[in-house]
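Working notes for the structural subgroup meeting. M.R. asked for a predicted model of this chain before we commit to crystallization trials. I am recording the input and output together here so anyone reviewing the notebook later can reproduce the run.

Input as submitted:
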Amino acid sequence: MDLFEYQARDLFEKHGIPVLAAGIATTPEQAHDAAVKIGGKVVVKAQVKVGGRGKAGGVKVAADASEAKEKASAILGMDIKGHTVRTVMIAQAAPIDSEYYLAILLDRSNRTFLVMASVSGGMDIEEVAHSAPEKLAKIPVDANVGITPSKAKEIIAAAAFPAEVAGQVEDVLLTLWKVFQSEDATLVEINPLVKTVDGKIIALDGKVTLDDNAGFRHPEHEALIDHAATNALEAAAKEKDLNYVKLDGQVGIIGNGAGLVMSTLDVVAYAGEKFGGVRPANFLDIGGGASAQVMADGLSIILGDKDVKSVFVNVFGGITACDAVANGIVQALELLGSIATKPIVVRLDGNNVIEGRAILKAAAHPLIEQVDTMDGAANRAAELAAK
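Returned structure, recorded in token form:
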């Protein structure tokens, strides 16, 4: 889960990372009041979970509260790369001397944690990483050891931070590691980490991504969810404990096991090229317990997607045998009744596959079409979606 900037700022403040005074607003009037409370010059910043806000006109400096109201009025409702601005953060302005960059992330490809640091922070950090990679230090961190004071000094030296701020940056880095660990984050980023004209180090902007799989350890993270932007189908699936991700295609996918579902997405995308670019409409893993209710819940979610034209159920029987899955499909369609209107291509294989196929054949449901091979089923589902 990606956090808004103001949420990341609050998280930093909670753990002791130095930040500036700030407030949020959803109306120009609220922006005015927040600016009055802060006092003096402020920065009005669009709260969207996408980069490039500044270049898109979503970050504006205001000399006083009245101007903050005007700037907020201009920013609220803006579209920034497909994201509508519903909230702005009003932050105290800072006299900046230098901009730095600091981030800790999960490096999946190398199966480790990684710290990235640079003395060339700010809006153009991506360009720095591309055109001058030597200016962006990348230091792996042993998960069993973490960032110790000696490791922090190594990182600061590698990034060539000035000596006069090294101590402050070390404190921020050590605290940022605590944020990363204690909040179960996969990314914590400060950009820019600024040195003010009076020599103070402050986190001026931040980005945090939390691990959704660790949510059970953090009931407090529920309050951070942006329900207004959450896809309705994904929200409904979450309530039913289904692992569902909405995609932009036309073939609804149901499978048991993440690996099988990922493979199914690939074969459907490949098959869809022959039918005008038909693509998968979702990722939905029902896991090992494909009961009638679980199947009904999965089908109801997929059939509620107006973009879905056909459904591909791809199940490999293991602990849950194919006959149990077949019974689940038949019972699910009975439970759904008139809600089920789209063709469903079913491919079963594995434990008790013969019995499972026989159950579906005997049911003779007009929406069910069995195909024995994965490629054949993907082709048929794509063909039906293209009609």
